[in-house]
Specification:
six-stranded mixed sheet, 11 helices, 17 strands, 27% strand, alpha/beta
């Protein structure tokens, strides 16, 4: 694939006034290709926003080179950059009395000049952008009337109206509900696949990034920058190092999610398959039990099959109607066991 953004030997940081310069990262080598969706991941303070601002040309790099379409980023004028890179930041847009149409039309500013008079081709570009994002029916609504998710869609449509090959977004799904996060991430993925855009977004939504990003750029805790396809990074063990060692968080390859490590607990045997068994174990861990396949002294055994939950103990077998009923039973039995041991 064609390299659209290409950085080599990149050092990131910012000036601290008279105190000198703060170096966040150095020696970075990375590339963003045409038609590629990249998710930038890392813990707070890992340097994601600094990298975003550097690649957008908002702040200079401390060292190294950044090439945009083969030309050094620093050699572009602001007007030239506005035709090549569209930017969506986390901050809410100062909407004033803007309608969705007005906001998306601002994406044509690099072409219309100071007075912003739209020609026929500009109107076509604005309408097409809104159609692609699916907000044509919102054209007359005021930005102040939109939900946060709808605002983000309008901002992405503005970038599309710019007709730039690169769209860079700094945490575009921050503060959005689950549905809006999925919709926005899916839209960005489709823009890469169907429109050939190069998409770079920083995000804390690891699970969606794993599902809908072609490439991950990761700033792991206390380790060097890594990049690759989600699947390669998972099976190489790089996802396990995202939050560093000594934390209570680990990456579960079976579910594609980060989970809290179990603090141990009372052994309980489990039997079942598929999704039912996964959620059974989830419920048990949350309530202080440790699901195992073998144990010298298990608290009991729980079998789940076709929605039927059965709890086995040496003395008896009990069928329960739901996970809630099972947990109530286990809590009561554990309480009785503790009281017996105290006597």
């Amino acid at each position: 694939m064609e390299k659209v953004l290409d950085a080599s030997g990149l050092a990131l940081g910012y000036k601290l006034g008279r105190k000198g310069t703060k170096v966040v990262h150095k020696g970075l080598n990375l590339a963003l290709h045409a038609g590629e969706s990249v998710a930038l991941l890392g813990a707070n303070g890992s340097g994601k926003s600094t990298l975003i601002k550097t690649l957008c040309g908002f702040i200079p790099s401390l060292a190294g080179t950044v090439l945009l379409l083969g030309k050094p980023l620093a050699q572009y004028s602001k007007r030239e950059l506005s035709r090549l890179i569209g930017v969506v930041l986390t901050e809410r847009v100062a909407d004033g009395g803007l309608t969705v149409w007005d906001l998306v039309s601002l994406g044509r500013y690099p072409y219309t000049g100071f007075f912003g008079v739209l020609q026929k081709e500009d109107t076509i570009a604005v309408e097409r952008a809104m159609d692609i994002i699916g907000i044509r029916d919102m054209a007359g609504r005021y930005i102040s009337q939109l939900s946060d998710g709808e605002r983000q869609k309008a901002m992405i449509a503005k970038c599309l109206a710019q007709e730039c090959p690169v769209i860079i977004l700094d945490e575009p799904t921050a503060f959005l509900d689950v549905r809006s996060r999925i919709e926005i991430t899916d839209i960005l993925h489709r823009l890469a696949m169907q429109e050939g855009k190069s998409i770079l977004m920083s995000t804390h939504d690891f699970e969606l990034a794993l599902q809908l990003s072609d490439t991950l750029w990761i700033f792991p805790k206390d380790r060097e920058f890594v990049s690759g396809t989600p699947e390669d990074l998972i099976f190489s063990g790089e996802m396990d190092a995202v939050f560093g060692t000594g934390t209570n968080v680990f990456f579960d390859r079976n579910t594609g999610a980060f989970r809290a490590k179990s603090g141990g607990g009372t052994d309980i045997l489990t039997e079942g398959s598929g999704t039912e068994l996964f959620w059974l174990k989830n419920a048990l861990r949350r309530n202080g039990f440790c699901p195992v396949e073998e144990s010298p002294r298990p608290f009991g055994k729980v079998v789940i099959e076709s929605g039927i939950i059965t709890f086995h103990r040496r003395e008896y077998t009990i069928k329960v109607a739901s996970f809630g009923a099972l947990l109530d039973l286990l809590r009561e039995l554990r309480k009785e066991t503790v009281e017996t041991e105290r006597r």
